[in-house]
Amino acid sequence: MKYSIFSLFQQAFRDQKDWTPAWRDPEPKLEYDIVLIGGGGHGLATAYYLAKEHGLKNVAVLEKGYIGGGSVGRNTTIVRSNYQEPGNIPFYELSLKLWEGLEQDFNYNAMMSQRGVLNLYHSDSQRDEYARRGNAMAMHGVPGELLDRDGVRALVPFLDFNNGRFPIQGGLLQKRGGTARHDAVAWGFARGADSRGVDILQNTEAKQIRIENGHVIGVETNRGFIKTKKIGIVAAGNTTRVAETAGLRLPIESYVLQAFVSEAIKPLIPCVVTFGAGHFYISQSDKGGLVFGASLDFYTSYAARGNLPGVEDTIEEAMAIMPNISRIRLLRHWGGIMDMSMDGSPIIDKTDIGGLYLNCGWCYGGFKATPGSGFCFAHLIAKDETHPAAKALRLNRFETGHVIDESGTGAQPNLH
User: Mean pLDDT, to the nearest integer, of 369-390?
Assistant: First the structure.
């Protein structure tokens, strides 16, 4: 069923009784051409683009829980491409361009809102750093605007500009950045992939990747063995556990990142705002709640729940720039599992095992990369060659020394 204003009117006159499920709940087949382990945003996007761009429809997506229940539904919804390193800018700009036409592409309302992303700076040295980032973006055709103090005040006058420790001196603004509804993105990709013949297998956990003569032959699941010649590992914070079943050790570690939502208030924040003296970021949802987060909980974990020191650190950073929200009630907070690479940048590559492909290490950038990740990973799996936009995201960069040290905040807590 195609969603449109006409289908809404049609269903209104039919008492909303003829809506069909957004995607099927099929039984696993004995064999697929491609199996993707991980039904989060990246896995679903990969399946969607495998079918749409490459005509590969005999594909299964294995999700151990339910669609939207992992990190894709546990983030702070920010979309941007204001990166600095040459290895990252082309990829994230490709992803942002896909975001800009995504809802029309997969016929689903992902609530994409290009309200802008503002990165604050608080010192002369940080201003120079953001000027370098803006210039690097411009060299790749990505527009950005360096604002002075008055420019920031005109956009977000409610901030604490005279904070004694962290006075706001200006900011770098990317107007094309913004937010999207995280779970709707997962649902849209799931519906789009399913409509093209992909099997989405919920409550199906990958137990063991089976290999013979250096090539994958299938995957053992809690619902039986599934035969295949190609497997894509796209399991976010659980990547290390899945890769271990194939005998792989990867340069990533899993950490918890907490996200928060406040009670609904009147419209206050017109864009996404980030705190330059820490790692705090905040926006306002369409329902009025403030959505925000900060840095990792600095202990390795596979558990999607945070700790109180992380909550305290986040609230302290919020008060440093927005003391006016101090009396707003916090409704809920949760944790998502982050697969942190050693250099803070992602990995999209094939492994030394024939037919085994890897998509991981997204660190803080996973949600904003969703369409670009799926597009490039689908290209890699279908053609067995790296997409030009992801050529710097190879796994062997840790062997050759060509790391992409975007922010110096990989898996090492002492660097944050």
Answer: 98
